[in-house]
Amino acid sequence: MDQKAMINIKQHKRKIQLTSIGLILLLVLALTFTIIGTKYTPTIELTQLQNNSNSQMMGYFIKCDDKNIVVDGGTKEDSNNLQQYIKDAGGTVNAWFITHPHKDHAGAIIDIIENTDIKIEHIYVSLNDIEWYQEYEPQRAEEAINLKNALENERVKNVVKEVELNQNIEIGKAKCEILGTKNPEITTNAINNSSMVIKMETKKNSILFLGDTGVESGNKLLDNQKEKLKVNILQMAHHGQQGVSKEIYEYIKPKICLWPTPDWLWINDSGNGEDSGPWKTKETRKWIEELNVNKNIIEKDGNIKISI
Description:
Elements: H1 3-40, E1 44-48, E2 59-64, E3 67-72, H2 79-88, E4 92-93, E5 95-97, H3 103-115, E6 119-120, E7 123-125, H4 130-136, H5 141-151, E8 160-162, E9 168-171, E10 174-180, E11 197-201, E12 206-209, H6 215-225, E13 233-235, H7 246-252, E14 256-259, H8 263-266, H9 281-290, E15 295-298, E16 304-307
Parallel strand pairs: 3-5, 4-6, 5-7, 7-8, 12-13, 13-14, 14-15
Antiparallel strand pairs: 1-2, 1-16, 2-3, 9-10, 10-11, 11-12
Helix pairs in contact: 2-3, 3-5, 4-5
């Protein structure tokens, strides 16, 4: 083989080597960007919090990138469990929604305001005047007074905001819209029927928090907000019993139901065994079974986290 041919072969081998090195570098870069992209892809996780007493309760902790959202939070007895989630996520609540002042929803925030140094950036409420609670639900008006007093605490009084109907609130990658506010004209099942209703949308899902919305305010939602009620994930009203009508559940047809429902309420046990109580949970359960809901997440099963 002459010298020129040998040079050509060497040059060809060199080109192959350079091409191979280039392809390897491109592959390494692609894998690196994939790993980085996976690591830093924003994730939103919702935890339905367990009850830590014999009471029913409702509490949701939502971690949205570097933002933390709480919906209600439960009773005073549930405060420590919620505090641990907040502290593990950096110690700040960026947005706290209180649907209504009943202690099984607002007890934890009262305890956290009065007895901890947890920072809360925004508290969103929709509250009637104290006189209204005293007139229409006097047996539980003290719970509204306790919440009002806590919200006037120097630590938080400047971050408390009364929401407006159809108000939009963005927290990180979560977009919230207020679909329901207080309903002073509804005096049957008064405090529950003045629950704030929140629709949350993420890149993957939509979630509706009904609080303890009753039949009357639920019908008002159907009349005024029907086109906005369709969601993938639905929080069952009033702990899954004697809340909104069957018509609302049939209209929404959720894929996932969040049940803030302890074991005794799930099986209608007043202390003398299953079906010994007056609650209507099993009726609601039947409605949801008929809708072929993909997944039910139930408070009785403990703290349960889902990606949303």
